[in-house]
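Would you kindly consider the sequence and fold I have copied below?
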Amino acid sequence: MKKLLLILTIVLSGLSYAQQVPAVLKTGFSREALKQKLEDEDGKTITIQQILDQHKGKVLVLDFWAGWCRDCLQALPKAEELEKNNPNVDFVFLSLERSKEGFDKSLVRFNMKDKDNYWFASGWKNDFNNYIDLNWIPRYMIIDQKSAIAKYYAISPEDPEIQKTIDSLLQ
């Protein structure tokens, strides 16, 4: 009986932490979400709106990750492959490291220094992440050429909907 109770507890705990698809798949961002501030490698502040403006006219993939995230690190080779196979697509990496020091170390450790990287200095819970229902990483979003959300929710770079969405936007 104790073993059964233990197994049931473990299963229920695992389910409570499992990634859940949001009930509403959004196609745009709120004003508050767009005002969310991040920091670049040099500590310079930038908003989500400014990031989107820099990539307007291009298909953009937002990759949410962290160096402490085992799932993110397992996905990294496939994410690199996705990036390599889509040279006409911009990729922006949004880090959920717990500190600036951790952000800097992860960029070096995982050969990310030459990529477009930003860090949520405010932490996981912020206006942008709350708006997009960020409940787990890795997470991928595709933004179209007009800064609208084309693919709201993907948890793996191998999700066939990612490439399908990119292909349809580039036609």
In short: The first helix runs from residue 2 to 17. The CA atoms of residues 76 and 86 lie 15 Å apart. The chain has seven helices and seven strands.
